[in-house]
């Protein structure tokens, strides 16, 4: 009984100590850490969180003369106008289509390439190949766009020059809507295929070599080992990356589309970010452009959260 | 008489090698696909106008001349753009690294109260933001439109880089090391400068390169924010107007205008803008690969 009372007293005094530690104790002990944090917090509050209040524009009829605060609240009227626009439907379709095609080709190519690179035993050959394959990742989209037109342009592009000298007709690779779509995807594959292999190669290097030895003993050839040992071993990596990219099908690179677009091909180049730029910064219709951006951001957030949920359900780490 | 090597190979060995040959061949083709486009542009940039117009230039320059390059170096607006790009990239990298370090070190300390909430505040910005128009209006209301600060400040905090640096510091600087330094009387500032930063040099180099190359290559924000002050266009934006949109012409002396073929000039300005990246690429590639590995580890 007495022991219990003593224990209670100790617990109480511990609590007291804890309470004393609360509040200013941590601030006094770690004030330097909090002082350091003030710098990034200021940046984030000004440049990331302050713009979020600008999203109110999507629910206002923004008039420059009246300013941000003076403009009238209109509820969902801006969204109703937005959904009625034919450009809106087109932009959503294009965004989804370009990203889905990207997922089909730009996502799978690095896996194939990683499997191929893994088969190379010579260090020098592998290194040289990797260096060349990584190169496009370091070029800006403006440069890639410029090179694309030098190569694929209808009038003077090198590939068309070769086709013509071989007796064929010039092909408007970038100056025709359907062709543009193919070129856009192909250029994306070209830009990202080498860089995408890095994660897979890292995963492959973690495979237990005994698995390969066992497969060899069982008489498995090269392809067999690729299919039955390597691929299943990197399945986790593939599934995780696939789910993460599924979360981004509503996103999209403004720079890539904009650098490859031209006046002759407007059918597929109107994606959501491009339309936001056209309506807002070029056209001055800030309310409608903000509404479109908000629409994309919310769908994108939902997709990312869903993807994360699925990844966790499947027993992966998830991203959040 | 010498017997060709191939006849010596036994049939079994040969059947094994055919896959090797096929794989090497396909890799070679893909690698060349990455190199040749650039080589063609280089060849074009070094060629004589006449050969380019006649469409005779493929992978090697014909009628070698450096004329186009001398024109580019004489074009004040291009040199000015290069200058803007260099300044913006350097300032952006320095500020970005300072902000990232100031966030990463405190958040890597397990004893920091409120760590989870503050981390969430930072990481949330990865998944949701105001978007193009609210960002634009903010830059506008801060009076930063048409200044280089619009290209430096808004993007200088990157939650992605913060997560990489935070987990790197957390794993490389054990709490015990920090505690013993504190017992010796060192404050957090001292620990950060004398222990954490020197021990994190490789990851700091990697992140600086992430910032620098990212800034060097981006043109979207410049397209939005640098509208009227043409002198402040960074190189990539200048390139966009010159080559991709072709809405702007090269500033040449009146006499050479008729003679010059824009195709050669376009090619040489592309090479001019790519060279800085190509020159540092072999050295920075290694750091980037490490960065990708670190980034794939959950923060």
UniProtKB/TrEMBL annotation, chain A:
Coiled coil: none
Chief location bin: membrane
Chain ranges passing through the membrane: 31-50, 103-120, 132-152, 181-203, 232-250, 286-307
Keyword line: Membrane, Transmembrane, Transmembrane helix, Transport
GO terms for cellular component: plasma membrane
Entry-linked InterPro entries: MetI-like (IPR000515), MetI-like_sf (IPR035906)
Family: Belongs to the binding-protein-dependent transport system permease family.
Protein's UniProt name: Sugar ABC transporter permease
Organism this protein belongs to: Paenibacillus lemnae
Higher taxonomy: Bacteria, Bacillati, Bacillota, Bacilli, Bacillales
UniProtKB/TrEMBL annotation, chain B:
Major subcellular site: membrane
Entry keyword set: Cell membrane, Membrane, Transmembrane, Transmembrane helix, Transport
Bilayer-crossing regions: 21-43, 82-105, 117-139, 151-177, 189-213, 264-284
GO biological process: transmembrane transport
Record domain ABC transmembrane type-1: where: 78-282
Membrane topology of the entry: Multi-pass membrane protein
The keyword Metal-binding appears for this protein: no
Matching CDD domains: TM_PBP2 (cd06261)
Pfam families: BPD_transp_1
PANTHER family, sorted: ABC TRANSPORTER PERMEASE PROTEIN MG189-RELATED-RELATED (PTHR43744), POLYGALACTURONAN_RHAMNOGALACTURONAN TRANSPORT SYSTEM PERMEASE PROTEIN YTCP (PTHR43744:SF9)
Family per similarity comment: Belongs to the binding-protein-dependent transport system permease family.
Protein name listed in UniProt: Carbohydrate ABC transporter permease
Origin organism lineage: Bacteria, Bacillati, Bacillota, Bacilli, Bacillales
